[in-house]
Every structure is written in C-alpha cells, then in structure tokens.
Amino acid sequence: MTTPRDLLIVTLDVAPIRPLERGDLSLALAGAELIDLLGTEALTIEDERIVPGLCPPTGDRLLDEAAASLVRRPPHEPVGDWLWRRGRGLSSAYLDALEEAGQITRRRHGWLPLRAGQAVPVDSPARRHAMDRWASDEPVLANLAAAIGIREDPAEDSAGTAGDATVTVLAAVNDAVMELEAERQRRAIEEAAYDNIWRGQ
C-alpha cells in the first residue's frame, strides 16, 4: 500500500468534519505521491522545486506514473505547480485502481461527491493497514487528512518529525487547497451577483 491509497481509504471510512471536495482530494493525493517518492529517493526537493533522481519501479502503477511524469530538465518544476498538474482527475484514477484491486465496492446514496454510488472499502489487509496508520496519528497521513477536512489540524510540531522535504510538500498541499477554496468562493460570489442582476436586485 502507498500513502495515496491509504489516504483514499481513510476518506472513504471516516466521516469528514467538512464536506469533502473532489479537487481537494486530488491535490492531497498528488502530494501523497510526492512524499512516497521522496521515501524511495526517486526525487529530492531543492528550493521548493522537484529534482528527480533514480526512478526504480515502486510496484504501484499510479506511483510509477507519477515518477515518470516528473520534469527532468532544469529549471525543475515547483512543488505547487506539480500538484496542480498531476492532481487533475487523480481522485478518480485512485478510485478506479482500488476498485480494480477489489479493495472497494459501491453502494448507492452516500455523502462522497466523487461518483454516483458511494465507494465503500471492503474488509482487507489494505483497509486495516490504512486504518492502523490513521489510528496511530501518523504525521504525514494526519496532515494530509487535515488539509482536506477529514480531521482537525494535528499538533503544530507533528509534521516536523517527517523531514524538511516532506514538510515542504505538506505546506504546498495546504496552500493549493486554500487557493482552490478561494476560487470556489470567488465563483460563488460572481454567480450570486449574476443571479441578482437577472432578478432585478
């Protein structure tokens, strides 16, 4: 199992403290991929830019795709830019992968706004691994979950135990999620103003 898969299972298993947005989840999954690739030494972070290293196969198709998509020529891509590029539609890709692996099933009528038919994790070693990691307040998973509203913010120093590069990625995920929320609010205000014009208000 990988951090993105663990994060997705947690989002399916734990009621969020605020509505889960598909775009937020995709950004967090992209961040989780970077953190796992840091762990395999497939990349390093220098001045908030992603510098690819060796890319040995990870055994996970989506993680290998993420490694292959890294910009290998300088100037290397900023972490934030990569999150937006890689994150596009990523939640659907991970849902499909979990479904193909038999790790989730679907039932109708659920809160998750990702697809018709709520995705539900099946009882499996993958689910138990993800939930054990969740129960232990593992810093990376806890901080990613907090960024997308699955839990309250963890302790301020919890991410610091994960290393500087990981902290950089987690901060970029938080910034991207906040930027996306600001864009949603801006569009909502514009649509409300447009509706008021047509109503003669």
Automatic annotation (TrEMBL):
Q: Which InterPro entries match?
A: GPP34-like, GPP34-like_sf
State the membrane topology.
Answer: Peripheral membrane protein
Tell me, in one coarse class, where this protein mainly resides. Answer: Golgi
User: Does the keyword section mention Transmembrane helix?
Assistant: no
Hydrolase as a keyword?
A: no
Q: Which domain of life is it from?
A: Bacteria
Which cellular compartments is it found in? Golgi apparatus membrane
- Pfam family for this entry, one: GPP34
| Keyword terms, alphabetized | Golgi apparatus, Lipid-binding, Membrane
Q: What is this protein called?
A: GPP34 family phosphoprotein
* Organism whose genome encodes this protein: Streptomyces rugosispiralis
